[in-house]
Specification:
Blueprint lengths: L11 H21 L7 H25 L13 H11 L5 H19 L6 H23 L22 H17 L5 H17 L9 H12 L4 H4 L1 H4 L1 E8 L2 E8 L7 E4 L10 E4 L3 H4 L4 H8 L3 H10 L9 E6 L2 E6 L1 H7 L6 H14 L3
Parallel strand pairs: 3-4
Antiparallel strand pairs: 1-2, 5-6
Length: about 375
């Protein structure tokens, strides 16, 4: 691979992209360290994401020797950059791509909606980004970040972070306390868990964009009392590596399957094996608290019309929203709060759905 420090002619895009990547990184560091919080979290994530997009595109141009566009003539997306950098160039490894996918999801939530990201998690991704940027800039472009920024630029932070499992455990405990507080809205809780969902899905073997259903499912599982290791097994397999460097502590997030704590479902009065996290078997009636009549009452509808909405939107296909519970010869069709949340936005459609259902029944031969 050509280096930007070699005597070989370098494509003009390389230096332009590299410069903009460094500029965004320096701005992210500056904003991270500023004393005011207004817009700070969102701006740091957006700038870190932009810095890597520019850096990866510079590396791709060096490798290919041509402008960084796809077959349709458009600039490469961030996902395409990650794929090329790992699969075709080996410029980043699996752990580094996983970290960048997590950052990508956090940036998406910050840019296109909103989230409540704790200072610890923001620090983790800011410091990890600086460490990774230094490595890619050095290995793929043959440049040293210290030669591109003033010595007066502050490091992100001067001490190493806490254990990643402890960090996430603290996040979950804070979230559980919020859920018990009647003055804190569900929207607040969803915004608080959204970064953790982005973190987990980005760290999976097949990273993807997060969906609203991912967030609501995670909060429902948390409310039901599940341990975070069970809700987010991808995060349980991550650990931090730190080293002291020129710009503070270098941080890497790496996957370590051995770091994951094994999970065991235990029944009441059963002994817990040593070294296992307990996934307590719950009473399903404690989670699936509503029958059809109760959920209809909460929606302000009749049970038959509620039943038609349930059929139309396939609520019974969601195992976090519906369970059919058998006790002896009896069957109980029960719904959780998630079912209510899924149906509530469609309550105004009940009359139309009911009329459509009646029309279909009339057409059926007797």
């Amino acid at each position: 691979m050509s280096s930007t420090n070699s005597k070989t002619t370098v494509h003009p895009d390389v230096l332009a992209l590299q410069e903009r990547g460094v500029n965004s990184l320096v701005l992210a560091i500056e904003l991270f360290n500023r004393p005011t919080d207004r817009g700070r979290t969102e701006a740091v994530l957006m700038l870190l994401h932009h810095s890597f997009e520019m850096l990866l595109k510079a590396a791709i141009v060096v490798n290919d020797g041509k402008p960084c566009v796809n077959d349709n003539g458009y600039s490469l997306s961030f996902d395409q950059c990650l794929h090329i950098a790992q699969e075709q160039m080996a410029a980043i490894n699996t752990d580094q791509r996983r970290f960048l996918s997590m950052l990508d999801n956090l940036r998406d939530s910050a840019t296109h909606y909103y989230q409540l990201l704790s200072e610890d998690l923001l620090y983790l991704f800011a410091q990890g980004s600086v460490s990774l940027f230094i490595a890619i800039l050095r290995d793929a472009l043959g440049s040293d970040l210290r030669s591109a920024i003033p010595e007066r630029v502050l490091p992100i932070f001067s001490r190493p972070p806490k254990n990643i499992q402890q960090l996430v455990a603290d996040e979950f405990e804070n979230l559980r306390m919020s859920l018990r507080n009647a003055t804190i809205s569900r929207e607040h809780a969803l915004a608080a868990i959204r970064p953790l969902v982005a973190f987990a899905i980005g760290g999976a073997d097949m990273p993807r964009r997060i969906a609203a259903a991912d967030v609501t499912t995670a909060i429902d599982r948390l409310e039901s009392g599940e341990e975070w290791h069970i809700v987010f097994p991808e995060v349980a397999q991550l650990r931090l590596e730190t080293e002291e460097g020129a710009l503070g502590f270098g941080v890497r997030i790496v996957r370590d399957v051995g770091a994951a704590i094994p999970v065991r479902v235990v029944r009441e009065h059963e002994d817990v094996p040593e070294g296992f996290v307990v996934a307590k078997e719950i009473n399903v009636f404690d989670k699936f608290t509503m029958g059809l009549h109760e959920i209809a009452r909460k929606l302000g509808l009749t049970p038959p019309k509620t039943g038609e909405l349930i059929r139309k939107y396939k609520i019974t296909a969601d195992d976090q929203a519906f369970r059919e519970i058998r006790i002896g010869s009896q069957r109980y069709r029960r719904y959780s709060k998630r079912a209510l949340d899924l149906l509530r936005p469609h309550a105004s459609e009940a009359e139309q759905v009911w009329e459509e259902s009646k029309a279909l029944r009339k057409k059926k031969p007797r």
